[in-house]
Design goal:
The chain has ten helices and four strands. The protein is α+β, with helices and mostly antiparallel strands.
Length: 324
């Protein structure tokens, strides 16, 4: 007597409807540990951010803030440092431990060949994996970014990092989800090309470090700089509060600019003589304003998302052209 598999179990009871079926069920089942880990990171990370914000609020209120600006933070800086480090490392962690093994693991163990020799095409299989991976990455990182933005924005004056710094700029607004998605897509592409999990993880780690350095250099070019001229002996204008200095000069009445240290002489008399000799009357300040931060973040996020789309298109094209 031969046995056949049917949809109805031997108990005679009709199984309930599944939320996921077919390929989606297979992908979620295969990567359930990674998806549950991301869910845990999102939930626990959100709770941690809410707790840390409450700690800061209580400490600052006890110190009389905002009427009294504390000379030093009265809250514990350990939690804040840990938070900034964890958020800054999240894109690299996702790229190395989620992106790199996603396809390379199936290639190395032969799972990809097994699945794609059935009724599922290679492109459909990869599309399902990418959809679940990208969705989990975007949702988890967007939630963490939203909570951190909610914490940072009203208390930014007491944070140790300024808004153009990577620990703030890259972890608030749309930048964190975009950076996580791009590096994850890069990890997937690297893993697909190298076909070995450990090698792909190592190369992805190096690539992610290079991207972080390059991104730090490009960040200040995401918006056009502004220039403000004000009298040499005047105080810095209030509109430069929270601005990010790019460069500064001293200038003559006819508009000629000199380096800031031109007249930094050893004596006041020598400095005054230098100023008089060159006819210097103005300070010239080149900067990025805090009000430019949202447009800079959306511009940067758009660049990262476009790069992620290119990598995804390449992966789908390659999987349809060559066997896994």
């Amino acid at each position: 007597m031969s046995a056949t598999l049917t949809d109805t179990p031997r108990t005679g009871r009709t199984p309930g409807p599944r939320l996921l079926r077919g390929l989606n069920w297979l992908v979620v089942r295969q990567h359930r540990a990674a998806l549950l880990s991301l869910l845990a990171v999102m939930v626990l990370g959100s709770i941690w951010l809410v707790y840390q914000r409450g700690e800061m609020t209580q400490a600052l209120e006890a110190a009389g803030w905002p009427e009294k600006q504390p000379a030093q933070p009265t809250y514990s800086s350990t939690g804040l440092s840990l938070t900034l480090t964890a958020l800054s490392g999240l894109p690299v962690i996702l790229a190395v431990f989620l992106g790199a093994p996603l396809v390379a693991g199936d290639q190395e163990h032969g799972t990809a060949q097994l699945i794609t020799t059935q009724s599922v095409s290679r492109r459909r299989w990869l599309t399902a994996k990418l959809a679940w991976c990208y969705g989990a990455v975007i949702v988890s990182s967007a939630v963490l970014s939203a909570f951190f933005t909610w914490w940072w924005k009203p208390y930014r004056s007491v944070f140790p990092s300024l808004w153009p710094d990577g620990q703030i700029f890259d972890n608030t607004g749309p930048v964190l989800p975009a950076l996580c998605l791009f590096l994850t897509a890069a990890g997937i592409t690297i893993g697909m090309l190298l076909r070995r999990v450990v090698v792909a993880m190592a190369v992805t780690f190096v690539f992610a470090g290079f991207v972080e350095v390059l991104w730090g250099e490009l960040r200040v070019y995401l918006a056009p700089s502004r220039t403000l001229t004000y009298p040499l002996d005047a105080d810095m204008p209030a509109q430069l509060n929270e601005s990010h200095e790019l460069d500064r000069w001293i200038g003559s009445a006819d508009g000629h600019l000199y380096g800031w240290g031109l007249c930094s002489k050893t004596t006041e008399a020598a400095s005054n003589a230098c100023i008089k000799e060159h006819g210097i009357v103005n300070n010239v300040y080149e900067y990025l304003g805090f009000d430019q931060m949202p447009s800079m973040q959306w511009t940067g996020a758009g660049i990262l998302l476009a790069a992620a789309a290119v990598l995804t298109a390449f992966a789908l094209w390659r999987v349809s052209r060559s066997p896994l």
